[in-house]
Amino acid sequence: MSSQRRSIEAVDANGDGAMSFLADKSAKVFVAGHRGMVGSAIHRKLEALGFTNVVVRTRAELDLAFQPAVEAFFDAERPRYVILAAGKVGGVHASSAAPAQYLTQNLRITMNVVGAAQRCGSVRKLLVLASSTIYPEDAPQPMPESALLSGPPAAGSEWYAIPKITGIKMCQAYRAEFGMDAIVAAPNNLYGPCDPFPSERSHVIPALIRRFHHAKATGAAEVAVWGSGAPLREFTHVDDIADALVVLMDRYSGAEHVNVGSGSEVSVRELAEAVREVVGYEGRVAWDASRPEGVARRLLDSSKMRKLGWEPKVALRDGIKELYHIYLRHQWDAKIKRDLAHA
Amino acid sequence: MGTVNTADPHTSFLADKDAKVFVAGHRGLVGSAIVRHLLSLGFTSVVVRTHAELDLTRQADVEAFFAAELPRYVVLAAAKVGGIHANSTFPADFIAANLQIQTNVIDAALKCGSVRKFLFLGSSCIYPKLAPQPIPEDSLLSGPLEPTNEWYAVAKIAGIKMCQAYRIQHGFDAISAMPTNLYGPQDNFHPENSHVLPALIRRFHEAKASNAPEVVVWGTGSPLREFLHVDDLADAVIFLMDQYSGLEHVNAGSGSEVTIKELAELVKDVVGFQGKLVWDSSKPDGTPRKLMDSSKIQEMGWKPKVPLKEGLIETYKWYVENVINANK
């Protein structure tokens, strides 16, 4: 993926002569959460585009959930641009088991970063990451931005969704009161490289990769997968997300959040088949239809993002191949076994 | 190690009157009523802090306070509050300050280890604009919010969810009470930043005092509202602290509706203004009807006691003695 040339042109979106993001590559950009899937992808993207002053901090260096530390950081660093991709992520099972942690941590990170960004006075533009979990379970499919708050987030995902909804509203409020150029992007399911390898507890493609690989390595006759395989899902590669975020930073200054999804739907069955083929596992996939499988369809309406001139480029199969190579390289299987032994 | 609880873990709030109770927001309409009630019930250790003494929007300060004070009970009645105009002028302040206050106080209360019970106060504005009327607790998040107070509402919803999350993950006994529109002594009577009822009292009083020919009121007067005297709310809060430990938030309303027009006429009458009452229908009305479904708390055995006219007379008297005469 990194070998593909991706060109995005700088645009003076509002004609006021002020430098747009892409014409401002020596300005200081703070990427919060640069170790996560989205954060690392945007970090890679900015470096590839020639940004010379990207500032990052690990969690040990800067606890974004601690208000005084975030304020001190912003006062000292005075970034011109901020991309908030930091947060506690882990999927429905993890967040349902630790709702207080998910809710508080993610609320704090958002409050602290948006608040400190406004206070320090240097931030020209701030982008906050939301998520498709903000939309209710029965939202129309594809889900438009206007579905926000038309119903409650799905039970179990509210601990993650509420901070994301709050983040959208915070950005709108800061724009309305201070004229702060705060925008929000809402991706759907993501996949792609991450270091360490993404947790299988929260990401279905890495989970399938591991299981098919393990089955291949041990000569297992079949791999059991929960559900019927029928539900449709949309996956977007993080490099495509990173492209979209750059376009948004360069061209979008609206109060409404923007959906970012590939628009390509795949059934869980098709997905499992694709992983099976990439891994080269020749056994059976055994579907256990008695197991829960989630909603029938979950697709973003990303037409607003498309109209800004963005389109996804990574085909699912290519993305899975890349991820499988990374998996093999990092020997993630052994690491997970060690992690589980210590859990 | 401070007030480590060696008492019977099942001691109810009302049997625990020597325990330390922290009332956050004791200077506001709700907080002051709660403190009054606690003191009149014989609570001996009520702890309060002014904003200057303790800024609840500062995480480190709140954590230090809780670690030092180790209260057994907490009532969070502190918030940044205001009406339609205030919310639309200071949306970031409304959402950010309230989120910070709530997050800091709930989290510090858990972390300090001494808090046995926590009550979070929200507002009826958390409910969708087009919620079924009367509004039941389960209509939370079922539809879009009223835009004129959505910033405050989003913050309060996050607070309810925090209480639930802390109960689920930590077994922390945090409950949430959602009062309807409140009124009473110690309300904010600022002409632009206050809610409808105190604003009406002030405007009719000033018109009377200056012999103005008329008072102009925003909107058409047709929206229906429910009002609860703050002493009734304080009573409900203490009742819930004593008896309720559920996951779901609880509505606290009077169950009685009036139109804004009826309210304005009642206030005019109580204040004794003889001029005209004029409606400026170019200004927004806000939500068309807001009546809480308070059957849950009423089935638990609580009911309000203060009728509206009586409450208005008492509130006006307080206003004259404490706001008007105090400034002379």
Features:
heterodimer, A: 343 residues, Rossmann fold, six-stranded parallel β-sheet, four-stranded mixed β-sheet, 43% helix, globular, B: 328 residues, disordered N terminus
Outline the low-pLDDT stretches of chain A: 1-7
Task: Work out the helix count of chain B.
Answer: 10
Order of helices and strands of chain B: EHEHEHHEHEEHEEHEEHEEHH
Q: Rg of chain A to the nearest angstrom?
A: 20 Å
Q: Could you estimate the helical fraction of the residues of chain A in percent? A: 40-55%
Count all strands of chain B and give the number: 12
Radius of gyration of chain B using CA atoms only:
20 Å
Give a structural overview:
Chain A has one domain: NAD(P)-binding Rossmann-like Domain (Rossmann fold). Chain A is 43% helix and 14% strand. In chain A, strands 2-1-3-4-5-9 form a six-stranded parallel sheet, sandwiched between helices. In chain A, strands 6, 8, 10 and 12 form a four-stranded mixed sheet that branches. In chain A, helix 1 packs across helix 7, helix 3 packs across helix 4 and helix 4 packs parallel to helix 5. The longest helix of chain A has 22 residues. Chain B is of the alpha/beta class. Chain B has a six-stranded parallel sheet, sandwiched between helices. In chain B, helix 1 packs across helix 7, helix 4 runs parallel beside helix 5 and helix 6 runs parallel beside helix 8. The N and C termini of chain B lie far apart (49 Å). The relative contact order of chain B is 0.14. The interface between A and B is large, with 36 and 38 residues.
